[in-house]
Amino acid sequence: MNKEPLLIGALAGVTPLLVNIVNTEADTLVSQFNIEIIMGYVIQAIVLMILGAFLVYVNSEDNKWKAFQIGVMAPALVVGLLNAHKLDGNPPAQATWF
Predict the structure, then answer these.
(1) Residue 56 is part of which domain span?
(2) Which of 9, 39, 62, 97 is in the most buried spot, having the most CB atoms within 10 Å?
(3) What is the reported pTM?
(4) Residue 79 forms part of a structural domain
(5) Of the candidates 74, 46, 45, 48, which has an alpha carbon nearest to the alpha carbon of residue 59?
(6) pLDDT tens, 63-96?
(7) Which of 13-17, 41-45, 91-95 is predicted with the least confidence, judged by mean pLDDT?
(8) In a 3-state reduction of DSSP, which class is residue 95?
């Protein structure tokens, strides 16, 4: 198998995290610049890159565009779940009819 689709899958795996940083947490990173937060993002990026490359490898995809799509799929779900967990630790209030 060609290694280029694996690299594309790994880079695709980190794109949801980059979008998340730019979209929601850029001001947090600038205002609270400490090593623990940076190391947390580095670890997340490495795990997401491994996940993206692994999915491309499992699907044995050689097409670059398909490799990007496959590589971004699961990491986007993981980042979405992490963001949903960060929003609020309390369960939502249940609606009542009366």
Answers:
(1) 3-85
(2) 9
(3) 0.76
(4) yes
(5) 74
(6) 889 889 988 988 888 888 877 766 555 555 554 5
(7) 91-95
(8) coil
